[in-house]
Amino acid sequence: NFVGPLLANKIGVRKVLIMSCLFSIVGFGVMMSYTVTSSVEYMMITQIIRSIGAGLGLMPAVTWTISVVSGDVEDATAINNTVRQIIGSVGAAMAVVLMAVFAGGNIGHNAISQSAFSETSLVMVILAVISLIIVLLYIKDDVKKDEGLEELTA
Description:
The chain is about 80% helix and about 0% strand.
């Protein structure tokens, strides 16, 4: 996604990450409204909203994080890539397990699965709100004014 780094370079990483969290909160929140009869178009539009949230903040967050590290950028990049892969894999697996737990193991095209999916989406909303709070409290735009972002957008 090239929009995130461009926006971060223009308005700052903090504002882009706030927008990213808000899109994610709205996207996961709307996912709680899915029913067994929800149309594919409706689900597609809501997934696009959620995906904008994820895509908007990913590269600026990574670049900002690495720019904060003084010294060995190569080591920071390697550690970041490894941790991101591990957390992404574990997070996806935990979301599936969480949904199965909420459904009592009765996953299928039924009301129990629909309720479990809504509850899992609620957990994702809570995690996105926690991310937003972390951004508001700890991310500042004044750290090295995103020198790495200029490289991404050049």
